Amino acid sequence: MSQCHVEPFEKPIDNAALSKAIVAYLEVSGIGCERCVTRVANSLLRTEGVLACAFNGNIVAVAYDHQTQIMENLIEAVAAAGNDGRHIYKAIFLSEEPVGMSPLRSYWG
Questions:
Q1: Which of 3, 66, 97, 99 has the highest count of CB atoms within 10 angstroms of its CB?
Q2: For the chain, where are the E strands, in sequence order?
Q3: 68-76: which pairs have CB atoms within 8 A and are 24 or more residues apart?
Q4: What string of pLDDT tens digits covers the 109 residues of the chain?
Q5: Among 87, 3, 13, 73, residue whose Cα is nearest residue 44
Q6: In whole angstroms, what is the distance from residue 79 CA to residue 98 CA?
Q7: What does the alpha-carbon distance between residue 38 and residue 44 come to, in Å, rounded to a whole number?
């Protein structure tokens, strides 16, 4: 099996927590293919307090509980996705807003 094979991590959506969440928009460098997207999404979804994420190109929207998580940890989770020595990912914070204001609200439920 190649180093690039990645199984997607499925995380059930907690609608009650999602309704109180913040959506952070991060620009991610190092994304070369769909497997890279899956690798970064998996790392984010495995981070405590992250409820959901969605990519559009190299921009990821991350719904998270701002009372249990801080932005620096989201950026670190993106970098940690490249822990195989072959992939290098970096995230830059762009903006954030309450999930109720996000166009992704209907996408997540």
A1: 99
A2: 22-29, 50-56, 59-64, 90-98
A3: 71/24, 71/96, 73/47, 73/49, 74/24, 74/26, 74/44, 74/47, 74/50, 75/26
A4: 456 778 899 999 898 999 999 999 999 999 999 999 999 999 999 999 999 999 999 999 999 999 988 999 999 999 999 978 789 999 999 999 999 888 776 666 5
A5: 73
A6: 24
A7: 10
The HSE-up count of residue 90 (CA atoms within 13 Å, CB side) is: 2
Whole-angstrom distance, CA of residue 56 vs CA of residue 50: 18
Cβ pair 28, 60 in contact under 8 A: yes
- Kindly report the pTM of this predicted structure: 0.90
What's the CATH code, domain 15-103? 3.30.70.100
